[in-house]
Amino acid sequence: xxxxxxxxxxxxxxxxxxxxxxxxxxxxxxxxxxxxxxxxxxxxxxxxxxxxxxxxxxxxxxxxxxxxxxxxxxxxxxxxxxxxxxxxxxxxxxxxxxxxxxxxxxxxxxxxxxxxxxxxxxxxxxxxxxxxxxxxxxxxxxxxxxxxxxxxxxxxxxxxxxxxxxxxxxxxxxxxxxxxxxxxxxxxxxxxxxxxxxxxxxxxxxxxxxxxxxxxxxxxxxxxxxxxxxxxxxxxxxxxxxxxxxxxxxxxxxxxxxxxxxxxxxxxxxxxxxxxxxxxxxxxxxxxxxxxxxxxxxxxxxxxxxxxxxxxxxxxxxxxxxxxxxxxxxxxxxxxxxxxxxxxxxxxxxxxxxxxxxxxxxxxxxxxxxxxxxxxxxxxxxxxxxxxxxxxxxxxxxxxxxxxxxxxxxxxxxxxxxxxxxxxxxxxxxxxxxxxxxxxxx
Amino acid sequence: xxxxxxxxxxxxxxxxxxxxxxxxxxxxxxxxxxxxxxxxxxxxxxxxxxxxxxxxxxxxxxxxxxxxxxxxxxxxxxxxxxxxxxxxxxxxxxxxxxxxxxxxxxxxxxxxxxxxxxxxxxxxxxxxxxxxxxxxxxxxxxxxxxxxxxxxxxxxxxxxxxxxxxxxxxxxxxxxxxxxxxxxxxxxxxxxxxxxxxxxxxxxxxxxxxxxxxxxxxxxxxxxxxxxxxxxxxxxxxxxxxxxxxxxxxxxxxxxxxxxxxxxxxxxxxxxxxxxxxxxxxxxxxxxxxxxxxxxxxxxxxxxxxxxxxxxxxxxxxxxxxxxxxxxxxxxxxxxxxxxxxxxxxxxxxxxxxxxxxxxxxxxxxxxxxxxxxxxxxxxxxxxxxxxxxxxxxxxxxxxxxxxxxxxxxxxxxxxxxxxxxxxxxxxxxxxxxxxxxxxxx
Lengths: 442, 442
Hints:
Two copies of one chain form a homodimer. Chain A is α/β, with parallel strands linked by helices. Chain A has three domains: 13-148 and 317-349, Rossmann fold, CATH 3.40.50.720; 163-313, Dihydrodipicolinate Reductase, domain 2 (2-Layer Sandwich); 360-439, 2-Layer Sandwich (Alpha-Beta Plaits), CATH 3.30.70.260. The first copy, chain A, has helices at 13-19, 34-45, 61-64, 79-83, 100-109, 119-135, 152-157, 174-186, 190-199, 208-211, 214-228, 247-255, 317-337, 375-385, 415-426; strands at residues 25-30, 51-57, 74-76, 89-92, 113-116, 140-141, 165-171, 238-239, 258-269, 272-283, 295-302, 306-313, 354-356, 360-369, 390-394, 404-414, 436-439. In chain A, a hairpin with a 3-residue loop joins β11 (295-302) and β12 (306-313). At the A-B interface, α7, β12 and α13 of A face α7, β12 and α13 of B. β12 (306-313) of chain A pairs antiparallel with β12 (306-313) of chain B, so a sheet runs across the interface.
């Protein structure tokens, strides 16, 4: 890994960029993986003379070098070389919290503006880093950190900033969406869909971060920051895994006019931010129900503009690189136009509401039971004790009586009211798997 | 109508705004119709202290005044009052070419930045006005001129600027989409759907500009300017009317897995811009096929980022006002940050390609005929003479033999090859209506 400077340059940051106002903006690239290569390619192929790639910083540069990179680009394994260079903009594409955070802080302290695609970094330290950038007269942009090439973060900064948003929901994780749409289309078990995704490179060997919602909730925290002006720690957002979703759930969901997707959603109501990530039933006819494979979708809900949907490639080198290069152009334009640029009104991000996952929705409860008389009566009895109203009981024919799946849907109630009933039901001896409980979104 | 200044203020424009750098940005609103009222409402309700509404200019102001507008806002019928005021930003919402053009030029020459929702003005004079704004150190933004509240123009300026776009397609006219989706859902005749749209306020008494494509092609010209960096006169874009679309076309389209929508599309291929507006067959499963009522959809196609879709409310006071206020905030931020702002690189807009509507696509030909033997043979004969390949012949049962609809679909060919065949077919004596010829988009 590239070394971190512990000795940031002490020059006044703003002066450095203004001196080069008429020259091309000098860009250093840190991290030369799939996205880094695609960014370099766009910068090198481009006819845009206002940007010049000057450095590429990565481990094992000898194995990374590409013939299409101009000869005057400096290849280095030492981040200090970038820090002490005259680069105006540092693109951080190494990902993860450490050493990326130190690198970004170092670059800002050296008077360089930063463009990053690092979702964990922005989700955890975005407000502080924006504050730091502001105080140093530098810029920090992170348009690629959510939904890859889908320009939802730039839209929140520009075309939607005149609205007052109260909700954001999205399909933010391509791996989950690939797996769920494979189960949907081929009715294969979860484990088979996961193996297939791994074989095709859509899922990592350890895909926990994707499957269990860690990736998506970092992105949701960033969307809540940029769109709802709320500061929320990703860990405080409840994440439910998609591992428990079975092919049979798509059969039952279809009976309800729905399909199953991993949905990330945040609703600001008064001083509470309702937020969660997890598999949910969505109508087949809704924009969410139609998102296939590794596409991403984000829907913003505003007081004046209503719902706006953004759909496109949520990952991949080239689409993510578009978001990175767009940010670089934006920062470069600002650098060219003024000596002390500060794009972000950090004060807008001070709201730190209580976070809750206690949404009120209708619910889908799917049971696998060893069939015996009186099952529905027992479950209905427990639900009645907790004042929960059954909407429908669905049982498709043709299943083995030893592992019989069936579904109960509930009328809208709060998650917190449902939870004690679920605990009681999971203790019943005929349940051969824990009940799968999914919100039904309309 | 408000008067136009023939005597623009001669002060150095940039100095004027920089003097007020620390104060709120002063905003004058010209045009107080549906959108104007919604803009004023957002500006007056808002907690944003960086913007202050100072003037409202309209005809018949006595009948327009609203109790929720603060008492210190100046109401005037004389645009000269706005011009000679200390407003930093003029919002032009009167629409049409004249006197809007003179007003916008006057405002720019008086050193004021301009935000407009005027599609005709930007479609016809956008590049010149941007040039003028640039030369005067003012800003000109027009994010509300296409697709109302759907932030596609801001996205082209920001999150997509790192890509190289080669195509843009959209459903840009809410009136056409309302009428076509009503015919689709209720299978009513065109005339009935139009009357209904007029009764509900979705179509004007003279809806020609909407139905015949004039409105959409102005928007397409703006998208081509902002997204493909091409300057194209709206009149050079072919526009086909939707008036000839019949309920039966939705039956036949459904047989082909399609529906009918007014599609505006522009593809840049080498030095030619292929562009047209008109009813087209689109797959029911595509984003275009699912757009209902007065929603707008825009899909951009880029070399790196692939297809990105933007969907939302394409018209209406509140959504359009969001786009206007977002532009105002953007301009105000720039004014606050620098004395001589110039956001637009006008040089990007110099490309003036040849315009063509000679797309190569499969085609849908719908005939209404007086039934007699040999019709298909005759039509097939003509098509064969012109080397056009039939893909399918569709004839649904149950129609009156005196006005029998049936459909021939053709394999992909250029419009210019099809045209002579259509002329020859229209001369046949059994045709009781001109053949309806729609491209099939995949």
